[in-house]
Amino acid sequence: MDLKALSRSRTIRLGQRTNLEVKKEGYLNKRGQRLSMIKHRRYFRLDGTHLTNFKDAADTTPSWDYSLLKCSVEPGENKTDLVIRLPNRVLELSAENEADAREWIDKFTKASNMYIENFYEFGEILGKGQFGVVMGATDIETRERVAIKVLKKKHMDEEDYKYLKREIDIVTKVNHPSVVITREVFETEEQIMIVMEYLGGGMLYDIIADRGTLTEQEASYVMLEILEGVEYLHSLGIVHRDLKPENMLCVRRAMWPWRVKLCDFGLANFVEERTSLMQTQVGTPYFAAPEVVKGLQYDSSVDLWSCGVILYTLLSGMFPFDDQENQANIFKLIVKAQVKFPDAQWSDISTEAKDLVFKLLQKDPTKRLSATSAKQHPWIVSGGPKTKSIIRNDMSMVHMSMRNFKEAAKERPELLRPQASELVESESTANVGAL
């Protein structure tokens, strides 16, 4: 697949700040390359840094497509003329009138200067991934600190690019205090750069692991922020599909509240109004709902199952469905959905907290709480028990389980693709006797 060709159809710079997109279209007279005295009337369309040329406004297939990034733009001999100097050719154009010529020159000039170094100073590497790095950076104009995800297209195949395009489509639409804000997206033929707000607190689970303790009041507040983010996404028809610790970042860690925000929408998808169901096995096994594991159709309720798993781990430091000795058995445990609350970890946890966990981890998606109803649960509304009793929670078991599963999956990739025949279980045992 030609990812360069795909990139030409996208605006180079997208985001929520004003006057980002450079767009203009209309007719210009173009001087011919061979017969320089003859001018041809052509329809031009500027989208970001990409300039396309059509014989007529009704045409859908361009005669050519050029990137104006770092090109030279200048007025021509006459007041209606303009000249664009590209690396391998010169475009001599003329507009209908002087005002139109000035507007085209202004747009072309902005497009030619729309590379990320004109807007941000890059700093240190914050993290590395399969397709690139996350860099710390500073906004040149406001001096605000940001994080920039720099992704190399040469490392992507068609499926990777599909998920990335989906993420870009989503992050440029969302704006909520419990969701990481994407300021803008830059795209060149070689790479894509996603500029996000900088969250210095790091991952939620790392903060809890470093601290070693948590109160139910704190856990209740954290879950409220998570549920608010999920509720917002669902209101837009977006299902995250991969809620897990790595996708929950905090604004700060030294001062309470930490301000938890959801991020990473590579697996997220829009729910079609006409169907509202999806049927793709994506996500992280420990946080996947039974219907996802079984390859059945599912809807936004899968995110609430993940919230139930997250709350369970916050309160106990363990996964609700785990098998350290046999990772393949994890999927069977998820499908059975028999939630247990061992006394060793749960004896000091309130009945209200267990009730919310239980109602989120319902095997039947129709019986699972929605984000809105979960926010209205007494344990969330009350802010947790007023006793502020300490939960000893070092997260070591959670980290160990996830690490062991990843290592086992490297040796046995089939762990990531459980067969339906292996997941047959007794419906009558699901969610029975949990409390």
UniProtKB/TrEMBL annotation:
Lyase in keyword set: no
PH domain mapped to chain residues: 21-113
Keyword set, alphabetical order: ATP-binding, Kinase, Nucleotide-binding, Serine/threonine-protein kinase, Transferase
Q: Which PROSITE patterns match?
A: PH_DOMAIN (PS50003), PROTEIN_KINASE_ATP (PS00107), PROTEIN_KINASE_DOM (PS50011), PROTEIN_KINASE_ST (PS00108)
Q: Where does ATP bind?
A: K149
Highest taxon, organism lineage? Eukaryota
Q: State the InterPro entries in the record.
A: Kinase-like_dom_sf (IPR011009), PH-like_dom_sf (IPR011993), PH_domain (IPR001849), Prot_kinase_dom (IPR000719), Protein_kinase_ATP_BS (IPR017441), Ser/Thr_kinase_AS (IPR008271)
GO MF annotation terms:
ATP binding; protein serine/threonine kinase activity
According to its UniProt record, what is one Pfam family this protein matches? Answer: Pkinase
- Is Kinase one of the keywords UniProt gives this record? yes
Which part of the chain is the Protein kinase domain? 120-380
CDD domains on file:
STKc_CAMK (cd05117)
Q: Which family does it belong to?
A: Belongs to the protein kinase superfamily.
Name of the protein? Myosin light chain kinase A
Native species: Porphyridium purpureum
